[in-house]
Amino acid sequence: MLVMSLIAAFAATAAHAANGPEIDAKRLSQDVKVLSSDEFEGRGPNTAGEVKTVAYLIEQFKAAGLQPGGDLVKGKRAWTQDVPLGRFEIKGPVKLTVSDGKTVQELKQGDDLAVRAAMNGAKLVDFKNAPLVFVGYGVTAPERKWDDFKGQDLKGKLAVVLINDPDFETGEGDFGGKAMTYYGRWTYKYEEMARRGALGTIIVHETAPASYGWNTVKNSNTNVMYDIVRKKPSEAHAPMEAWIQRDLAVDLFKRGGLDFEALKKQAQTRDFKPAELKGVTLSANYAVDAQVITSKNVVARMVGAKKPNETVIYSGHWDHLGIGLPDAKGDKIYNGAIDNGTGIAALLELARAYGKAPAPARSVVFLAVTAEEKGLLGSEYYSANPVYPLATTVGVINMDALSPTGPTRNFTISGSAKLDLLDQLIAKAKQYNLAYTPDPLPEAGHFFRSDHFPFAKRGVPAISYGSGNDLVDGGLDAGRKAEEAYTTNNYHQPSDEWSADWSFTGMQHDLGMLYSLGRDLAESKDWPNWSKDAEFRAARDASAAKRK
Description:
The protein is an alpha/beta fold. The chain is 30% helix and 25% strand. Residues 1-17 form the signal peptide.
């Protein structure tokens, strides 16, 4: 009876909290069901699934009573913002062999290595007997007096690198302990090796420091790749970018006269020096189809009644992985129900709530971005080419992979940023019986993995909201088990599908709070900022004159 009473109390809070609108759990469920249906083909950019998704979002935003807020076309706003992207796909077989001078071993794409389509503009990746060099964590951090390369020339060589930071295993050191810095992200590793002229980068997969299993790596990297259109793509991408199974890497190190575990420990110190896997070489041959396509961000807007040029943004990514490699059951459609059908359903439901209310003083934008799964590309493009100036963007509330189950006693955000916007959210949450729980896995680098980040690095106060794990019905134990089960069994896999068992009452409750937070921002004259010691404070302060 106590659990039922608590759930009833949370439901009442959602319906009747100050400024709280009517949030409909059934509509949330229906939106996720539609967007993650097989008909939408996994919502891959530049596919029939994108066309259906964009049409559905526009239809729902129109019905909510909002206005188009995208590109200016002949003096009028469109519902979308064009996002030009490079599209890269491996065509035909991927031939991979490794030699230790005695034997030649064939490697299998997806099982041994997960090789990405080249994004440097090459139509063919073809090399023979390239040497492998272990470069530790692959970090160059002058401000930390850290250099993993020690003058090593990587031209014509494949750099083998560890995922995450040197501090990950010990939990202490120059990289903030367990919390991942940008140096720990795979994107940084690829970029740094390209800057150094490497033939390729091979990241050793280990589940704990990566924060996900091999299936996620396989499904995310053997698919069609996208990137923003670059003038000099070879400066950002080496010809080969790949991940390797840990056990295979350990074996190759041994065949090259090296001890993987001993070298990994050395790599956690400043004294580490690169080590060549003597006699071990890799050969590769695969063709790449490279072209430029145009995807779409969907932009809906409620124009502010008094300060229309000041903007509050709610965001979420509409895309998922599309159609890819089949799972054990032969399912090729990566439906993306939780990731991120839930965030888009939340965006639509918030739009409906605003559409039923009077316009606030400031404008509110509902931004559904493309190609998050390909590296936050839709939000990166919007941030680099904002429809509404970033200097007068009050803040960004992003929603990604929310829990579709019951209510919780807590909430979190991606990463451990310090900013006024979080303080305001924490204060608002108290009115909704929610306590703030800092990101339980800062080592996973979630701060760099969601669509608020392109805004944040340009100074805009931005957070990515995360559902709590202390379930009203089941507590922390049940919440943690549910998170682990999703990460292991469904994340970036075809099994991320809608379920009729999902109640959506947790989202229903939390969205009442996020509506109220955004509404407060939109009615306010204040400009939230980052803490004085935050790395994004300087970028925000640089545009302070435009907010007077």
